[in-house]
Amino acid sequence: MKNSFVYDAETFPNFLCITLINVDTKEKHQFIIWEYQNDKEALLDFVDRDILLIGYNSISYDAPMLRYITLHEGRNINDDIFQLSKN
């Protein structure tokens, strides 16, 4: 059985945070991308595992944010993600 995680993305012009909590174990993982911390590679490694992501409004919001992160290179992607978030 896959590990199931509830997840949520929060975006600001210069800050992104994605939090995932294991449904069964309550294990929490948090990934941040901003000026002083860049967890992008760790986030990509984490979601590349065989896991199931569950979220409220994830189809319209959280999944597009996560997909953008996985498809775009560069350290400073927060402005682009924030613009996507506003759309």
Short description:
With 87 residues, the protein is an alpha+beta fold. Helices cover 36% and strands 36% of the residues. The protein has one domain.
Fold and architecture overview:
- The protein is α+β, with helices and mostly antiparallel strands.
- The chain has one domain.
- About 35% of the residues lie in helices and about 35% in strands.
- It contains three helices and five strands.
- It is globular.
- The termini are far apart.
- The mean pLDDT is about 85.
Class computed from helices, strands and strand pairing? alpha+beta
Side-by-side strand order of the widest sheet: 4-3-2-1-5
Beta-strand percentage?
Answer: 35-45%
How many beta-strand segments? 5
Q: Topology as H/E string?
A: EEEEHEHH
**How can the largest sheet be summarized?**
5 strands, mixed
Note the overall shape: globular
Contiguous helical run count:
3
Stretches where pLDDT is under 50 for at least 5 consecutive residues are none
- Roughly how many Å is the radius of gyration? 12 Å
Residues in helices, as a percent range: 25-40%
The domain count comes to 1
- How many angstroms does the end-to-end distance come to? 35 Å
The overall pLDDT average reads 86
